[in-house]
Design a protein that fits this description.
The complex is a heterodimer of chains A (337) and B (66). With 337 residues, chain A is of the alpha/beta class. Chain A folds into two domains: 246 residues, NAD(P)-binding Rossmann-like Domain (Rossmann fold, 3-Layer(aba) Sandwich), CATH 3.40.50; 75 residues, 2-Layer Sandwich (TATA-Binding Protein). Helix content of chain A is 32%, strand content 21%. Chain A has twelve helices and 14 strands. Chain A has an eight-stranded mixed β-sheet with strand order 3-2-1-4-5-6-7-8, sandwiched between helices. Chain A has a six-stranded antiparallel β-sheet with strand order 9-10-14-13-12-11, with helices on one face. In chain A, strand 7 and strand 8 form a beta hairpin. In chain A, helix 3 runs parallel beside helix 5. Chain A is globular. The mean pLDDT of chain A is 93. Chain B has a single domain, classed as Beta-grasp domain (Ubiquitin-like (UB roll), Roll). Chain B is built from one helix and five strands. Chain B has a five-stranded mixed β-sheet, with no helix packed on it. Chain B is globular. The chains are: A alpha/beta (337), B mainly beta (66). Chains A and B meet through helix 3, strand 5, strand 6 and strand 8 of A and strand 5 of B.
């Protein structure tokens, strides 16, 4: 170990030698290694977090390079799984860090095993479904997690300290309904994803260094285009919250997850999500991205080599793959989930 | 009456509720959280929680990208 390596952050009074020891002893999960997650992972590795678990279900694409800090052209050319590409880069950044990549779709079925022994979870996901799952896991196990999200030039973040602060469900009891703007349909600036990921990393270091008690509970919103930064105080856990109050973890039990089935060869069906969609609105969002054919019964979106058929009840058939994780990812990115 | 929404002064009808305000701003209620005078107002209260002159609201948009 190079003695000087962490000297600048050890000099910072909030960290010090004792805080650095705690950071080194920690195991952190970065869930989703896109724009937010790849930035967080790089920062955590540089800060000397002892063990980093990287979970992602996607592959590096050319459209990722504009904002996904850890990847380069060779990763996109090789269509490497993001968790693998990120793990390789982290190993080069800091060989003292133990990095475990997991190329998987995080679900109620595998989350217990995947996140075993993790001290902190950083949200780098691109969809609501996984965030509600993470929230259930974190609240039920008493593990802190840090929500973050961004679209366009706007993003927000909030730290969730189970038992101390409100959780995601206290503030937003249900995921939004209907099609949602995503980075694929509405675009996104690298300045906002890195700003939000930086705020998440700041809270992460504070928690890991042993200062969770003095972390200010708040939601922070940032718009890097309008220049607006706003904060809202995060209340204590809500006794009426399904997760914090009732301790009913419906996402963790898989009850709220849209079932998936393989339908025929090379196609995956995502079943009704109790999430009615406005196909006209979705058509307008997808048209700039590829060929769209729509009538009142269904919308067909051509995204070679895939073809998505989306129904007004939220159901979809994704042709061109039998990889369930990939199908979910396409749905999350183009419909929003 | 005058209220302040995300730092911007606004004229609204007397006795307007949180939900009516969101609708008048064209916001999808499923995508926002609302803080009124530094306290978060839970969604079930939005239809009958009326605003008073000088109320300060923060409306936080929930997004899913990343």
């Amino acid at each position: 170990m190079e003695p000087d390596r962490y000297s600048r952050q050890v000099l910072f009074p909030g960290i010090g030698a004792a805080g650095q020891q705690r950071i080194r002893a920690a195991k952190v999960a970065v869930v989703g290694c896109g724009a937010l997650g790849s930035f967080q992972a790089g920062a955590l590795a540089r800060a000397g977090v002892g063990r980093i678990l990287l979970i992602d279900r996607d592959y590096v694409e050319w459209s990722n390079l504009q904002r996904q800090w850890l990847y380069d052209e060779s990763d996109a050319r090789d269509a490497l799984p993001k968790a693998i590409a990120a793990a390789r880069r982290l190993a080069a950044i800091n060989s003292e860090v133990e990095v475990s990549p997991l190329v998987a779709d995080l679900t109620a079925a595998n989350i217990e095993e995947a996140l075993e022994g993790v001290n902190l979870i950083l949200d780098g996901t691109d969809n609501f479904e996984t965030r509600y799952l993470l929230n259930d896991y974190a609240v039920s196990h008493g593990v802190p997690w840090i929500y973050g999200a961004a679209v366009g030039s706007y993003g927000l973040t909030m730290p969730v300290l189970p038992g101390k602060t409100a959780c995601l469900k206290c503030v937003y009891p249900e995921p939004p309904s209907g099609a949602q703007p995503t980075c694929e349909t509405a675009g996104v600036l690298n300045a906002i994803t890195s700003a939000i990921a930086s705020l998440q990393t700041g809270d992460a270091l504070k928690i890991l260094a042993g200062h969770a008690d003095s972390l200010r509970p708040r939601i922070t919103t940032v718009d890097v285009w309008s220049g607006e930064v706003r904060q809202v105080a995060l209340p204590p856990p809500d006794a009426g919250c399904q997760a914090c109050g009732w301790r009913e973890f419906v996402h963790l039990e898989g009850k709220r997850r849209a079932p998936i089935s393989l339908c025929g060869r090379n196609a995956v069906q995502i079943h009704e999500r109790a999430q009615p969609l406005d196909l006209g609105q979705l058509k307008a969002a997808l048209e700039p991205l590829g060929e769209v054919r729509a009538n009142e019964f269904a919308l067909r979106f051509f995204l070679p080599p895939y073809e998505m058929t989306i129904f007004p009840d939220g159901r979809a058939i994704i042709k061109g793959t039998d990889d369930v994780g990939l199908a979910r990812s396409l749905y999350a990115r183009y419909v929003g989930a | 009456m005058r209220i302040v929404v995300n730092g911007e002064p606004r004229e609204v009808a007397d006795g307007i509720t949180v939900l009516q305000l969101l609708e008048s701003l064209g916001l999808d209620p499923s995508r926002v959280a609302v803080e009124l005078n530094t306290q978060i107002v839970k969604k079930p209260e939005w239809p009958h929680r009326t605003l008073e002159s000088g109320a300060r609201l923060e409306i936080v948009h929930f997004v899913g990208g990343g």
